[in-house]
Amino acid sequence: MRSQTSFNRIVTPATEAILAGVFIGNDADVQPQFGTVQNFAQDREIFSEGAGADYFYKLVSGTVRTCRFLADGRRQIDAFYVAGDIFGLEFGTHYGLSAEAVTDCMVIMYRKIKLDVGANHDTHLSRELLAFAVRGMARAQAHALLLGRRSAMEKMAGFLLDWSNKSPDRDTVSLAMTRQDIADYLSLTIETVSRTLSQLERDHVIDLPSARQIRLRKLDMLEDLAA
Question: What domains can be seen in the chain, in order of their start residue?
Fold first, then answer.
């Protein structure tokens, strides 16, 4: 596992404003200068499973994956995060997953102890934390349902629809992750991922103009497959 990049700097209030609301909520009592900007190059580790969960992160740009490495060396990707998402906010003392940069990315790192103190005195912040926990549970449930689908085609259809919903143009999906990332997220082999995408292309459900861009030609068919 490669180590993180060395670049970091303290966030000033002016930088915070430019980065457009990197913290949960807008409470004036939560001082943004406690955050630190860090840049991570592609595939760099942000934090590791089992390490002390002293910080949580807001993703400003790029894509991040959280994952677990199994005893036999296989990797299971739990989630992908995009700009605006918060990750690494553990309610225990240690990280349950590792986090890695899928692409070059910028994050804001916050000390969790500052959040704990703020939540004890601020009901708005407490509600935001509850909302974050609920979103995390919903994300985990959606992934569990995706993995529970019977066939590789059903899993792939659900994955493409999920990213379609996150895209500005629902008919075009631009993927930051590799085929191997997709395989590790869907619990498939990379060969199965490639074969499934090729079959969808032959069936004129999608177009593959490039390895990372997918045009969804028949959303209704994908929805039927994922149902």
Answer: 8-147 (2.60.120.10), 149-226 (1.10.10.10)
